[in-house]
Amino acid sequence: xxxxxxxxxxxxxxxxxxxxxxxxxxxxxxxxxxxxxxxxxxxxxxxxxxxxxxxxxxxxxxxxxxxxxxxxxxxxxxxxxxxxxxxxxxxxxxxxxxxxxxxxxxxxxxxxxxxxxxxxxxxxxxxxxxxxxxxxxxx
Length: 139
Prior knowledge:
Strand content: under 5%
Oligomer: single chain
Shape: flat
CATH architecture of the domain at 43-139: Up-down Bundle
Number of helices: 5
Largest sheet: none
Helix content: over 70%
Structural class: mainly alpha
Number of strands: 0
Distance between the termini: 22 Å
């Protein structure tokens, strides 16, 4: 029992210490920041291209992280994650429609990259969520 308490405390301490560290920016976020801050990328089209590349990179990263996480799970865990991911994809698609319905009301070209950014951020957050689970399993 004493050993269990020590291990539990050590794990908790490590997880809370990890959570309190200042997170470094993800390379995809850095790529997007660099692209958007480039003086040559000032038009709406340029911003869309930057954000589209970041969206595609996050989508690719999501698939990589998902596969890595699947490789760490039991058969039951794999089944549950697969089901959760299928449900998340359905949620994502509906959320994209919600985002579209909101931005369809707004007028102005500045909202075009904002719409894509909101969609990208949804995929980004899911990727980081799954990556957090993966990191937890590799402590």
